[in-house]
Write a structure and sequence with these properties.
The complex is a heterotetramer of chains A (504), B (327), C (316) and D (358). Chain C has 316 residues and is mainly α. Chain C has helices spanning 3-8, 10-28, 35-60, 68-85, 90-114, 119-141, 151-158, 166-184, 186-196, 198-203, 208-234, 245-255, 269-286, 294-315; strands at residues 160-161, 164-165. In chain C, α2 (10-28) runs parallel beside α13 (269-286), α4 (68-85) packs antiparallel against α5 (90-114) and α4 (68-85) runs parallel beside α6 (119-141). Chain D contains twelve helices and 14 strands. Chain D has helices at residues 2-18, 28-32, 68-79, 94-107, 122-131, 157-171, 188-202, 219-233, 245-254, 272-280, 291-307, 334-347; strands at 54-57, 85-87, 111-114, 136-140, 151-154, 176-181, 207-213, 237-242, 264-268, 285-288, 310-311, 318-320, 324-326, 353-354. At the C-D interface, α3, α4, α5, α6 and α11 of C face α1, β7, α8, α9 and α10 of D. Bound molecules: adenosine-5'-triphosphate (ATP) (2 copies) and magnesium ion (MG) (2 copies). One adenosine-5'-triphosphate is lined by residues 18, 21, 23, 41, 43-49, 90, 393-394, 403-408, 433 of chain A.
Chain lengths: 504, 327, 316, 358
């Protein structure tokens, strides 16, 4: 066996130019059979673009791809699948009107492999695939009701059942819980045993060190140095390679909030969808963490509070007086209660609009002159300032948000929440898909907000994140509040406590 | 050369370039084209096209369609006719009542679309029949022709011997719509609801209210168009609006409005109306059989997409090569 | 069968309304269910259903097709002209008519694909091609109908197989084929997937080009057949065939429960939707409703039906 | 291929008619015509050929107007003026017609004979054109009065529908039920036709007007409506009166069925399909008007008006151009009938005008 044949996939001098940006600039690396190859880099570095090129979504401007030592033109996705390249893209790509089995066995449909649909065989195949990723769902179920975590697992199940030789996973664990992520990593390891090569993208560096054999770092569309073996690196060094400078994590000290007034109080709130009553208190200037596994009911609870799902029982007090919020508009305009959704594509952004218009719509009051006319100068100023402080990577503020990288889209959602000067803010999964560096920036921003007296609820499935910034953590499970803990800022002890309250 | 390139890239180029081309060709090939009679006639047709186009545009901006533009026009003009002819109201009051009627019809449509949960397309379809039917039942098909003479004269009034008075109304309405869409909160909210309704709600926009207002404005614009049409015809005609539906889509689309919602172009719509009228004029002046009118309009529409595609491609290429040069 | 599931479906509530309408009509008009009337109803129903199914396929793929009527007219006029002027045999003319459907479908499909593919693009493009097709038809015919259609051709429309009019049978077979396509073939599932989420579908190997092209070809074939059915029914091929198909083509599938945004179809629901439209038209004549009232009643009935359907689904 | 061939045919049809000979010097046609020595040949002093560019514009594409351009060109040849143009909007839409009219005038057309797409709304356009010096003669149907058009050459729509219904009732043996079939109910002409049908039926005690169905001037809608009414009230129906094109064609087809041999029907217009229906016995007859004569006389009138003739103030605005009841007997001689009647009118046509001052 010659040395060349060892590589199952070789990328040579890949360059990709989009109108206005050079997303990839002369990137090359090679992947051996049966290895887990991690791609890391900041938001907008070009990782997803690379995945798209390998999987045939679009072609490279320059450069070539070799599969099994043979140069291939991967002009469309089907071609990639034929070559044995399976993929889970960064964004969810399920067919809402299809049931689970059809979604999982989607490749059979799209390739027209089995001409007449054999429902039974398909169900069995789907069940096997779900078993592999630890999903316990019925194959004939619809998918519209599933939580984003479940949907993510479905996508992975779909990629698994493609029998691919190369599997591309673009941030597969961004929106799933720890247990699910563990399951996934286990599956990845098992696939590796079976000889499947995997390209793995994640901003969670712990995972990378857990499974990756080799690591390629991408910064501003270029690969930084050669591919490195995972064992030769540690976390700090990796971050330094990614960011281009030394990275310091800030720590936020515990504060004494006992004298602060309670600004938001929920007493036994429940809704039709979610009948278990729940209560909590939020103090002025406090950062309250809501921890829970995917599907624990945090998002739903938040929706009740902000008036989107009607409350059937219980009462909500803002600054001590009982309020009844009929719509989010009311919560937003009247009580300065602001919510940033975890679902940026559907609930956060106007993808066809440019960045500044996306920010402007939520800040109408700030950008209007006295006569009620919109000042685009003000709108652009505000947007520019957030582009700066959140280091949003875009040519300018007039590019369509659809063309931004996932992480940068998330940053715009955060900017939208920040620019309205709320009194209470609920941020749902603020750092999903955000690189380490910016994650720190966002934490800092949240902390600064709380210092200014704004109360923040951070919903997160990332224990480390909550331990880092929260003053208090509420733990959710199965639509119930299972416990409430003061944050000791010590990850080890906190996670044992939290796990304890979840298990109870 | 660079200038031309820049012009080709401007947002409005896909409507301005055809206008200039057709205008130039007509001026060269057809001696009657620049006559004051013809110019006046062209300008006289523009207002209805533009305002009906705007009425559709505002609903398109919400990502919906208003199939009932014509019917709203008829029923509003019937209200106008009743007010003026049967009740002897002064012109201004009659106009006001007609506009109120239009707004009301739009309002009903908006409320049904947002609150009933019935498929918006079907609602619009049903209201199309319902409004027209109501107009027929009220009038038994009879036109109103005893209108205020001054009002009828207005529709055919010449200013500076060239411009019909109505074109100024259209310009005014377009101006107001431009400001509304671009510089008022409402405009931003409309576009937000059209681009992504859920995200709009999460941005603190009252979705239902915005959609209802959008439909109401659309209804009001239909009424204005109907009144202008009445003043041109000198009578309230039950067939007013029968031919509006296609126009209402073609005009804003020629002008660069995105049918999926979220992006509109008021100036483009104005120019789109002008382009439509020019095309129609060219067909007659060039002696193309009117059997071919339809084919020509269709081809021009296809051509407009092609120009738009070319423009985008050119912009992309240029942006790409700019990146390459930088490197 | 699962009765609870049926009861919850949109088709169930539309069926209730249809039964209700028929009962009311029978109450007012003894002879409402006469053989004559049923056959009159069925003949119209056949065309309306076919037109609805044609549109449903476009809707399923996330698009819209406003050129159905002109494609139907194109097939009708051209096949009619061939039979009248060149004495082309009936069967061959029908095949050519279908071929014209294919051709129009290809033109539509290519242009839609070129202009971007889904919803917006398809509406705009077919708006334009519709104008072009109509223009061509009027240029060919100069507005005159083709009146000397061979009897053999017209006979297909008036003949019956057993008690069932042939046209109904043809439509029955076609709609069943469409049902099978959507339920059992990859193409059908691909169209639905593309309609529900074009981006995801494309990322996972469904060809945008092939899907759009096949959708438009199939839809146009159905439209062409519908156009020829009209000729069989009317006895002449008039250039105005299909001029009022646009609205009913949308109304029939949407009333029948097809998802407007694409991705979900209720194939046999189209029949119910078409039946609703046909019965309204028929009942207005039966009841001798004053000409000025017909439009109004039309609108009101459609709203009432949809409101009823809505109320039921809320209760469920 | 068929498509291309068809397109060619269509285009040829268009060019043929517009480029037909405009020999102004050949006087033979003039010498044989009734206009010899009454109306001057060719351009009169001070005017040029260009001042005699006339056009016809119908209310919509309709088989009614088929003979018009031919008739107008015969008149043009006889009088030594340019061949005429002819155009019509696709549908009965006044705005579209206005576009055509304005375009023609911009192009240099100096006189127009026309039928308004809408009788009321078209009037304002007529005023606009006449005030810019273009004489207008209306044909086919009258615009609402008062109108700025010089005169209208038409059959009174009310009268035609009335006569048609009377003919039907006579064919029915003055007893039985009648169904009326009409076009767009928003058209005032349709409204007077409906009144005429009602009035005619009311005059006969044994005749009952069962129903008038409107808004069905479309090929499919008309068939559906007729089938529906036959199914609903077939036993009461003895006759149909159709006042528009498509229902007439539909009647010709549906009533050819044996079962309906007892049902009488009168159509309108003289389209091939309708005439075939008469020959086959499905229809009793059709009410034909005189489009040939209308266009012929209108063109002559335009020439006269340009020459300086004026329409006498005491003459009626609406000039009856005749209407004919076409039955099996004269179905083959429709155009001939029209031409004969026209020539009869032509003999005294100039009497309606004041001659130009010499
Ligand atoms: N379709 C597109 N059109 C224009 N620019 C694009 C397009 N897709 C990506 N880009 C740009 O290419 C760059 C790289 O984006 P990419 O999505 O590959 O980043 P990423 O490394 O995956 O980041 P993240 O971690 O945030 O997902 C970004 O600047 C982005 O704005
Ligand atoms: N497999 C499932 N099928 C149907 N419904 C589910 C499923 N899993 C969760 N849900 C519903 O979703 C609710 C919780 O969803 P929610 O999005 O509020 O949770 P979350 O804690 O915010 O989790 P996530 O991290 O996914 O946002 C559950 O109460 C349940 O009703
Ligand atoms: Mg990415
Ligand atoms: Mg959540």
């Amino acid at each position: 066996m010659s040395k060349k044949e060892e590589y199952i996939l070789e990328l040579e001098n890949i360059t990709k130019i989009f109108p206005g940006v050079k997303a990839l600039d002369d990137v090359s690396f090679k992947i051996k059979k049966g290895e887990v190859h991690a791609l890391v880099g900041e938001n907008g570095a070009g990782k997803s673009t690379l995945i798209n090129i390998i999987s045939g979504v679009f072609g490279p401007t320059q450069g070539s791809i070799k599969v099994n030592g043979k140069e291939e033109k991967i002009t469309n996705p089907s071609k990639a699948f034929e070559l044995g390249i399976g993929v889970v893209h960064q964004e969810r790509n399920l067919i809402d009107t299809f049931d689970i089995a059809e979604n999982i066995c989607f490749m059979d449909i799209s390739t027209g492999k089995n001409k007449m649909k054999d429902k039974k065989a398909m169900n069995q195949k789907a069940e096997r695939a779900m078993e592999r990723v630890g999903l316990d769902l019925k194959p004939w179920q619809g998918i519209e009701e599933l939580t984003s975590g479940k949907k993510q697992m479905l996508e992975i199940a779909r990629a698994m059942c493609m029998d691919s030789k190369v599997l591309l996973l673009d941030e597969p664990t961004a929106s799933i819980s720890l247990t699910e992520a563990d399951m996934l990593l286990k599956t990845v390891k098992q696939l590796k045993e079976e000889g499947v090569s995997i390209i793995y993208i994640s901003h969670k560096l712990e995972e990378i060190f857990e499974i990756a054999d080799s690591i390629t770092v991408i910064r501003d569309g270029k690969n930084i140095g050669e591919t490195l073996s995972a064992s030769s690196l540690n976390k700090d060094k990796l971050i330094e390679l990614m960011v281009g400078r030394k990275f310091v994590t800030e720590t936020y000290n515990n504060r004494d909030l006992s004298k602060e007034p309670v600004i938001l109080e929920a007493k036994d709130i429940s809704s039709k969808k979610n009948p278990i009553p729940k209560s909590f208190q939020l103090k002025k200037g406090e950062i309250l963490g809501w921890y829970g596994l995917v599907g624990a009911g945090r998002t739903e609870y938040a929706r009740e509070i902000i008036g989107i799902d009607p409350i059937t029982n219980g009462s909500l007090l803002i600054k001590g007086s009982e309020v009844s919020i009929k719509s989010y508009e009311e919560a937003f305009q009247r009580y300065k209660l602001c919510y940033i959704s975890e679902n940026r594509k559907e609930e956060g952004l106007f993808l066809q609009h440019n960045i500044t218009d996306n920010v402007g719509i939520i800040a109408l009051d700030q950008i209007c002159t006295k006569g009620g006319f919109i000042s685009y100068r003000k709108q652009n100023e505000i947007t520019e300032s957030y582009k700066e402080s959140l280091s949003i990577k875009a040519k300018d503020i007039f590019v369509e948000t659809a063309s931004l990288s996932g992480g940068n889209q998330q940053k715009i959602c955060i900017a939208k929440g920040l620019c309205v000067n709320p009194e209470i803010m609920i941020i749902d999964e603020p750092t999903v898909g955000i690189d380490v560096n910016t994650k720190g920036e966002i934490h800092k921003l949240i902390y600064e907000l709380s210092v200014q007296g704004i109360s923040v609820i951070v919903i997160s499935s990332d224990m480390g994140e909550l331990v880092g910034i929260a003053d208090r953590i509420i733990v959710f499970r199965d639509n119930e509040i299972k416990g409430e803990l003061e944050n000791s800022k010590d990850y080890e002890s906190m996670s044992t406590k939290v796990m304890g309250s979840i298990l109870l | 050369m660079k200038r031309i390139k820049q012009l080709l890239q401007a947002d409005l180029s896909s409507v301005i370039i055809p206008i200039i081309t057709i205008f130039g060709l007509l001026a060269i090939t057809s001696e009657g084209f620049l006559s004051s009679y013809n110019m006046f006639s062209i300008f006289q047709s523009v207002p209805i096209f533009v305002i009906v186009g705007l009425a559709q545009m505002i609903v398109l901006s919400l990502g919906q369609m208003n199939l009932a533009v014509g019917s709203i026009g008829v029923l509003s003009s019937v209200v106008f006719g009743i007010a003026m002819q049967n009740l002897g109201m002064p012109t201004s009051v009659s106009i006001l009542l007609a506009c109120i009627a239009g707004v009301l019809q739009g309002l009903i449509q908006g409320v049904m679309v947002t609150k009933s949960g019935i498929n918006p397309f079907i609602i619009s379809l049903a209201l199309l029949s319902l409004y027209k039917g109501l107009a027929l039942v009220i009038t038994k098909g009879q036109p109103f022709s005893e209108l205020n003479a001054g009002f009828s004269a207005f529709g055919n009034l010449k200013i500076v011997g060239l411009f019909p008075a109505t074109i100024f109304i259209a310009a005014l309405v377009s101006g107001i719509m431009y400001v509304l869409i671009r510089y008022r909160k409402l405009g931003k909210r409309l576009l937000a609801c059209g681009a992504n309704g859920v995200a709009a709600i999460y941005s603190g926009v009252n979705y239902d209210k915005t959609v209802i207002i959008g439909h109401a404005i659309s209804g009001g614009l239909c009424a204005i168009a109907a009144i202008l049409q009445v003043s041109r015809f000198g009578s309230v005609q039950l067939s007013i609006g029968d031919d509006w539906m296609l126009t209402s889509f073609v005009v804003p689309v020629l002008g660069g409005t995105l049918l999926s919602g979220g992006k509109v172009n008021v100036i483009g719509t104005f120019l789109g109306g002008f382009l439509m009228v020019l095309i129609n004029n060219a067909i007659v002046l060039w002696g193309v059989s009117s059997y071919a009118t339809n084919a020509a309009v269709g081809l021009i529409l296809l051509l407009a997409y092609e120009v738009d595609r070319m423009r985008k491609k050119m912009m992309n290429n240029q942006a790409k090569s700019a990146v390459e040069k930088e490197a | 069968m699962d009765f609870a599931k049926i009861r919850k479906s949109n088709s169930f509530s539309v069926s209730i309304i249809i039964v209700f309408m028929v009962v009311v009509m029978c109450f007012f008009k003894r002879n409402y269910l006469s053989a004559d009337n049923i056959s009159a109803l069925l003949k119209v129903l056949a065309v309306t259903t076919l037109v609805g199914v044609s549109q449903m396929i476009s809707i399923a793929s996330g698009g819209m097709n406003v050129s159905i009527g002109s494609v139907g007219a194109m097939a009708a006029i051209l096949s009619g002209l061939l039979m009248q002027n060149l004495k082309v045999p009936v069967l061959l003319s029908i095949l050519i008519g279908i071929g014209i459907g294919v051709l129009c479908g290809i033109i539509n499909g290519l242009l839609i694909y070129r202009n971007g593919g889904v919803g917006v693009a398809s509406f705009l493009t077919t708006l334009a091609t519709n104008s072009v097709f109509i223009g061509i038809i009027y240029m060919i015919t100069t507005g005159h109908g083709v009146s000397k259609i061979p009897d053999a051709f017209v006979a297909i429309g008036s003949s019956k197989i057993g008690p069932v009019p042939t046209s109904v049978l043809i439509v029955g077979v076609l709609i069943t084929l469409v049902y099978f396509m959507f339920t059992y073939t990859s193409l059908g599932r691909q169209i639905l997937a593309f309609g529900a989420n074009p981006k995801a579908a494309e990322l996972y190997g469904i060809s945008r080009f092939k899907t759009i092209l096949s959708v438009n070809i199939i839809a146009s074939i159905l439209a062409a057949i519908a156009g020829m059915l009209v000729v069989m029914r009317v006895g002449t091929a008039q250039p105005d065939i299909g001029s009022d198909w646009m609205l009913q083509s949308f109304a029939a599938p949407l009333i029948g429960g097809t998802r407007q945004a694409g991705g979900k179809v209720v194939v046999f629901g189209v029949i119910l939707g078409a039946l609703v439209l046909t019965i309204i038209e028929n009942a207005l004549v039966h009841l001798g409703v004053d000409v000025y009232w017909t439009e109004l009643i039309n609108g009101v009935v459609i709203i009432v039906i949809m409101a009823f359907d809505r109320l039921r689904s809320i209760k469920n | 291929v068929a498509l291309a061939a068809g397109m060619m045919a269509g285009c040829k049809g268009g060019t043929d008619s517009s480029s037909s000979s405009s020999q102004t010097q050949d006087k033979t046609a003039y010498d044989q015509s009734v206009w010899k020595d009454v109306v001057e040949f060719g351009a009169v002093d001070g005017k040029t050929d260009k001042d005699y560019a006339f056009a016809g514009v119908f209310g919509a594409i309709n088989s009614y107007s088929d003979p018009m351009q031919g008739a107008a060109d015969i008149a043009a040849e006889e009088l030594g003026i340019k061949a005429t143009e002819f155009d019509a909007p696709k549908d009965w839409v006044q705005n579209d017609q206005n576009t055509i009219l304005d375009g023609l005038i911009a192009k240099g057309i100096k006189g127009i004979y026309m039928m308004t797409s809408d009788p009321v709304a078209g009037n304002e356009q007529i005023s606009k054109m006449t005030s810019s010096g273009v004489p207008i003669v209306c044909v086919g149907g009258s615009p609402s009065t008062p109108s700025k058009a010089t005169l209208t050459l038409a059959t009174d729509v009310y009268q035609a529908a009335y006569d048609g219904t009377i003919n039907l009732i006579k064919a029915m043996g003055e007893t039985g039920g009648v169904v009326g079939l009409c076009g767009a109910v928003t058209d005032t002409n349709t409204q007077s036709r409906m009144e005429a049908i009602q009035k005619a039926c009311a005059e006969y005690p044994n005749v009952e007007l069962i129903q008038i169905i409107g808004d069905i001037d479309e090929s499919e809608a008309s068939v559906t409506a007729i089938e529906n009414i036959l199914a609903a009230k077939g036993d009461q129906i003895s006759g149909f009166i159709s006042t528009c094109y498509y229902p007439s064609v539909a009647l010709a087809k549906i009533l050819s069925d044996e079962r309906y041999s007892n049902v009488h029907a009168i159509g309108c217009d003289t389209d091939e399909a309708v005439l075939d229906g008469i020959k086959s016995g499905a229809l009793d007859g059709t009410m034909s008007q005189n489009p040939w004569g209308q266009a012929y006389l209108a063109t002559v009138t335009l020439k006269m008006l340009t020459d300086g003739w004026t329409y006498k103030a005491d003459q009626d605005f609406l000039v009856d151009s005749g209407s004919f009841y076409i039955t099996k007997d004269n179905a083959d001689k429709v155009e001939q009938t029209q031409m004969e009647a026209t020539m009869e009118m032509a003999k005294t046509w100039t009497d309606r005008f004041d001659a130009p001052a010499k």
